[in-house]
Amino acid sequence: MKDYVIMSGTSTKDIALSISKKHNRPLIDINIKKFSDGEIFVKIKENIRGMDVFYFQATPSNDSLIELLLTLDAIKRSSPNSITLIMPYYGYARQDRKTEARTPISAKLVADLIEKVGIDRLVTLDIHSEQIQGFFDSPVDNLYGANIFVNYCKKYDLSNTVIASPDAGGVVRARYFAKKLNINELAIIDKRREKANESEVMNILGNVKEKDIIIIDDMVDTAGTLIKAAKAFKDNGAKSVKACITHGVLSGKALKNISNGSDYLDELIITNSIKQEKTLQNITILDSSNLFSEVIRRLQENRSISSLWK
Amino acid sequence: MKDYVIMSGTSTKDIALSISKKHNRPLIDINIKKFSDGEIFVKIKENIRGMDVFYFQATPSNDSLIELLLTLDAIKRSSPNSITLIMPYYGYARQDRKTEARTPISAKLVADLIEKVGIDRLVTLDIHSEQIQGFFDSPVDNLYGANIFVNYCKKYDLSNTVIASPDAGGVVRARYFAKKLNINELAIIDKRREKANESEVMNILGNVKEKDIIIIDDMVDTAGTLIKAAKAFKDNGAKSVKACITHGVLSGKALKNISNGSDYLDELIITNSIKQEKTLQNITILDSSNLFSEVIRRLQENRSISSLWK
Amino acid sequence: MKDYVIMSGTSTKDIALSISKKHNRPLIDINIKKFSDGEIFVKIKENIRGMDVFYFQATPSNDSLIELLLTLDAIKRSSPNSITLIMPYYGYARQDRKTEARTPISAKLVADLIEKVGIDRLVTLDIHSEQIQGFFDSPVDNLYGANIFVNYCKKYDLSNTVIASPDAGGVVRARYFAKKLNINELAIIDKRREKANESEVMNILGNVKEKDIIIIDDMVDTAGTLIKAAKAFKDNGAKSVKACITHGVLSGKALKNISNGSDYLDELIITNSIKQEKTLQNITILDSSNLFSEVIRRLQENRSISSLWK
Amino acid sequence: MKDYVIMSGTSTKDIALSISKKHNRPLIDINIKKFSDGEIFVKIKENIRGMDVFYFQATPSNDSLIELLLTLDAIKRSSPNSITLIMPYYGYARQDRKTEARTPISAKLVADLIEKVGIDRLVTLDIHSEQIQGFFDSPVDNLYGANIFVNYCKKYDLSNTVIASPDAGGVVRARYFAKKLNINELAIIDKRREKANESEVMNILGNVKEKDIIIIDDMVDTAGTLIKAAKAFKDNGAKSVKACITHGVLSGKALKNISNGSDYLDELIITNSIKQEKTLQNITILDSSNLFSEVIRRLQENRSISSLWK
Amino acid sequence: MKDYVIMSGTSTKDIALSISKKHNRPLIDINIKKFSDGEIFVKIKENIRGMDVFYFQATPSNDSLIELLLTLDAIKRSSPNSITLIMPYYGYARQDRKTEARTPISAKLVADLIEKVGIDRLVTLDIHSEQIQGFFDSPVDNLYGANIFVNYCKKYDLSNTVIASPDAGGVVRARYFAKKLNINELAIIDKRREKANESEVMNILGNVKEKDIIIIDDMVDTAGTLIKAAKAFKDNGAKSVKACITHGVLSGKALKNISNGSDYLDELIITNSIKQEKTLQNITILDSSNLFSEVIRRLQENRSISSLWK
Amino acid sequence: MKDYVIMSGTSTKDIALSISKKHNRPLIDINIKKFSDGEIFVKIKENIRGMDVFYFQATPSNDSLIELLLTLDAIKRSSPNSITLIMPYYGYARQDRKTEARTPISAKLVADLIEKVGIDRLVTLDIHSEQIQGFFDSPVDNLYGANIFVNYCKKYDLSNTVIASPDAGGVVRARYFAKKLNINELAIIDKRREKANESEVMNILGNVKEKDIIIIDDMVDTAGTLIKAAKAFKDNGAKSVKACITHGVLSGKALKNISNGSDYLDELIITNSIKQEKTLQNITILDSSNLFSEVIRRLQENRSISSLWK
């Protein structure tokens, strides 16, 4: 195995520390100062010349994105052998196309900024759309959060379970998850606004009566729509509703919504791809570091990543 | 209005000729020779120095893609003022992400090849996924085939009509089309393979009984799946089934399938984005040149394209 | 004069509005939403196809830098004729070289990010070091804040005045300013730390006794060092101390420091290159919009910018 | 020796298989599907992470060129250590300059497309003009077909032989070949059209009477000119005429021309740089795989390629 | 006609001044200082914002090449509308391929350096090989020196004239020139070294007895080979020998060789593409400025350049 | 330690030879021919495939800069593993910003040219301004000449010594040097021109009376200003004046100035970063090869360079 080091930005310290222990290698220290005017100063505190660098940083905020770019610049100018950027959460992924006239394609812009500084490979987790891989010239390995949830869900009795996608776009993910759990039935939420100025209706396609529902999705932000979907399932006779959602953005009123909606959503299962300052009783946070740890091992041994999913 | 010229590759001669007439400008002649060994030779026969060039070429085949790249190179070396590439059909658009390990992202590769030679703007029609816009650094204007179909469909009695998407991915397109026609109801085909080695089942979500169905999609290739979908609608009680599909690739057994399936699919409506050598009685081909003509006019007058869709 | 539009980011609205009035052209509206998770969404609300765009945005924070990049991307994809980016304040300019091992060159990174999205020309005001012009491939016009201060200072009796630079690096700026005011005498602060762990000594080179001092500099952040310098001048017998400093970053305890140090620093004169939320009685804020307005006029008339300084 | 793998496109399977045997390494399988609409799908069937990849593909057609680019993209996204592209035949090499106004420089375009996807090194065989090396930024090693022909020709009595170039451009190649065979005398064909509308005259420079002629060239396409040249030599008294031509494009009426011209051309010797579907009795096909095999060995051992030719 | 300016480097002052007069436009002054340590300082003395710039500079030396690059950088940073670089002589053009192992492709390097700084179009005169056009991404217009020589030569009685190429590589140029002069007969020099360590033999292909010979070539350097060729023609019975050679490099012993060889070479005709410090009685220098003047006129009027040659 | 080779351009033969001995590795021979017309031809005489190449070349002249670029191109096309360019002297470094309107940023241009050909890392010695590091995308290690001078100066009695900077820009370098020698006192020369057309006055800041002065600077060219500074120190009562200046450009009248000024400047100490053809009695030339040798050793062992300076 080639010589390598683990590094981490401020938003992924826990994951990286856990991996540094699993791999029995010290986490290279980065000094990150934030000045009172908001500018960030980065200094890598140890020599990394000639090393294969695995640098973790999620980008749930503009500050974390700028920190990522500055740190990549510092890494590049420190003469490593290679740079693998591991982004457990890739911000701005939802703006992956021109949704309206004269808007940016923000997910492409983020890719361009990262490629401009320079990486050798990107590892992401449940990136919002797979086409984002094509925004990069470097190889991208996108990991599936489903593989983290499968083990956890197996502890439940799944005999009466239906896997649900909260929109048409997530059907492929839902099928993959269902197959992993040997579940056949799917349900899809079809949001439609029957008339202008009326509120969106949560129309359910598929049979959910007396069923245990597991919603699978990549991202939960304010949780407003999620709670509405859970309510719709319960209103249609579902026995229980859980949600396995990789990225817990949980901004704004999210915790309040989840707390208020606990009659509808029985459990929210997320990963630690985004660091949580606060949490709630009905939120379960799964550790993603085993997955990343295995990926780093395979990369260093030149073994296949895709075979992890078979 | 600035000075401009219309040019066309071999696969879009009809559209370009029609536009050249509408705009009252000669179609600049390109000499395209194909040698017996398969190599293509391109020569632009008139001076285009300082002109705004609108170059049409669809890429339903590898030959047409190479012809496009060689012609762009010839245009670039002829010192035009700007190059607008108009691709009524963008080949390889379906391979817009790494579908399996160690496969190319072909739609990105095509974008890279085009950008490498150099264009100022791309105009496409119903590109397979909107994220492909992000594969380009140049501005991309993607036109909607729905706007061509709307006028045609208005001649029918639509009071009992349901708009259908042949898969989950096409729901956004279906809704846009339904809204343009003031139709509320949608149906979606949910293909699922219940067990390995069993054939795919066409499960219909939504009510189609006694309804007139209009399927909307971006592309029809061998038409096998399309006929199966039409049969499924009829089997579920639909009164009639039409399909509005922008790009008539119609390769392999397509015409045979459509002919044999005429009990299920009453009419197939496509555009002339791809040149058809042969056709059938129940295939209607709509002219897309009005749409492109208006776009060129707006581009030369610095007017908005997006406002076309409002 | 060619057809052009004025646009502005959130941090330069006042300057841009003033210019839009002076040039009698509406300020093109940009819709900038900040979501609860911190992501920014940008939409240019009017068609700018074929226009020469003058886009103002200062970057005193990471949010304003990301907003700048996203907006540039949206502008680029809207097919303007040219993009002139006007940055009254260029953040991260102080990190213009590798100050220590394994640190980024942040000012170059910012330049790379901007060039990657794509501009035709950059206009800045008192950029921290002139070498930053070389970080760009595009033409850069750096304006001098001194030209704003000169008019203001002429209202004072300057017969007994010495121009002071707060460090060796600012001597060139100080001389330029002195020459503009027909002043001969300079003073320089030489900060030195005589022994480790002792605090820095403010050693004054030049004669300041009974003199009116005008400090000139590009940037004031927490104002700690500025007040120490003013105190040193007063301790050495200066009659009055004013400071003309282009960019009022004024972060952290800045206002408190300036307020507490009002015995030493009689007046702080800054420009509106950075928007001030709060201010103090002994702070004067000069409007920079006349300068930018004249530059835009000259750019549109293909006249020289440099001749402004002769 | 470093770890490496052999891969091949559809047009070079025989050469690559032979090399895989010589090097005792399995040929990595690539799944190449051609859909009925003409699009190509590529999948590399085994993990190649960290490997030095030697990928063979000739480009005698547009399909093979697109296949090459798609496969390179798939290789690049599979994280190999390095990519050496081996093109036994480089299509479009004859269009290596602007032959007329407003034509592409096709050989440069092909180079640009390949470099855009990304390779570490290119190996070619008898590329049409050596300047094409300069179209690449990557190192190019151009092998000489003459080295394949020399061994074969030594079986003949060469005491009365003259080496002939079919045009002025091939004189350098002819001299190199002559020197390798210890032959002194050269002949050159000087095609000239004495008056417009008269057919080209094959004027022979050099003495060929009672001589055994060996024509050497890089490419034979329809063989029309070759047979005319052979006839001219025989008409001028040559005893026998053979031709050693690296790339047997042999398109259109080539086989018919060669068959009909067998009185003039006694033997055509080509290499297997292009796969031949059919052949004729007086065509000899030499195997080029020894040459490529030796080159791969030297590359992996960091030994000189150029010393092969001394 | 669009607004444009003429500029010139130190090596093309005469040509550019002549054009500035023909076009009735002042030659924009460039201040070029050479410091005592050899470094060059460039300053464009007038505003060129928004202008189409035609910048002349030949590169017969490393100093002139660096001057060219520095001046292009200064032009680029001065915001012109476009830059047309006109290189009457392109140095390093002979090294247009890897002649031996581990040598640079110098002509490509020069192209890369120029493209890196950035031009919109290149105009050259008789560039050594046409493939060099492909080293550039920008459009290249290569003018033919033959068109300058044709008018001059018409003053001679050409009834008994043979056009001669000094090597196989120049045959295409020789034919073009012959056709322009309505001459049919060509002669070619075939240099061969019969045995190692013997000197090169000048073998003449074609009939020169009692003929007036006009040698045509792109470049004469030390003139050693040229005089040997002239001697060979005279030794074979030629009545007179003239040489029309576009670029008079004339380095080292060139003038001495030409003076000593005046029995063999009756007249050397060159152009002023390279400035001559000294000359001789039997050297005629033709002015190339009419040709360049006409090209600039056509470029500004968007007319074809290639039609000049028909 | 990885396998590596040492190479050198014409201007750094001595340093490189010394290092080749210290590292016990042969200096790879480069054949550099200069033709009579001034063009340079480069050929690397041994195979360097797969090697880490350390290539030395200083650029005190345009010829040496072109030689550097051509040799880099030859190295790149020879397939090394990596290229470390070591420039003991970086020409054009003083033009590191647009000093006046319409001038080039020559130091950036040189960086662009080098990056265009391609290097993996740059090592320089006392580059004129540290911002030049940001002109490169590759990592740059800038060594300090002060570390060479420190050992030499320790042989002197330093108890009464003042370190002097010849201008405001050099104060940081002077402090670093003073600290290395445990000296506290600094002096600065403040050149000012009191009235236009009067000559510059050398105003001394700091106490130099009865002191031993050591001037430290990066570059001495014609030595005119240096001698004036030395005279100013002596005129102000200095006991002795020495100067430690890394790069001895010494062009024009430099030796004459130094010789004539020997009453003022007692000793000039330079390094061999630039090869000296001639020298004088009061010039001491220190060998820089120990420093470069140590750097190469650390690079090959993946050890830190920055820790050299602590």
Architecture overview:
Six copies of one chain form a homohexamer. By secondary structure, chain A is an alpha/beta fold. The first copy, chain A, has two domains: 4-144 and 290-309, Rossmann fold (3-Layer(aba) Sandwich), CATH 3.40.50; 146-287, Rossmann fold (3-Layer(aba) Sandwich), CATH 3.40.50.2020. The first copy, chain A, is 28% helix and 26% strand. The first copy, chain A, has eight helices and 15 strands. Chain A has a seven-stranded mixed beta sheet with strand order 11-10-9-12-13-14-15, sandwiched between helices. A six-stranded parallel beta sheet of chain A has the order 2-1-5-6-7-8, sandwiched between helices. In chain A, helix 1 links the parallel strand 1 (4-8) and strand 2 (27-28). The two termini of chain A are 24 Å apart. The relative contact order of chain A is 0.12. The model of chain A has no long low-confidence stretch (mean pLDDT 93). At the A-C interface, strand 4, helix 2 and helix 3 of A face strand 4, helix 2 and helix 3 of C.
Question: Any chance you could write out the topology, listing elements then pairs?
Answer:
The structure is a homohexamer of 310-residue chains.
Chain A: E1 4-8, H1 13-22, E2 27-28, E3 30-34, E4 40-44, E5 52-56, H2 62-76, E6 82-87, H3 106-117, E7 121-125, E8 140-143, H4 146-153, E9 161-165, H5 171-180, E10 186-192, E11 201-205, E12 212-220, H6 224-235, E13 240-248, H7 254-260, E14 267-271, E15 283-286, H8 289-300
Parallel strand pairs in A: 1-2, 1-5, 5-6, 6-7, 7-8, 9-10, 9-12, 12-13, 13-14, 14-15
Antiparallel strand pairs in A: 3-4, 10-11
Helix pairs in contact in A: 1-8
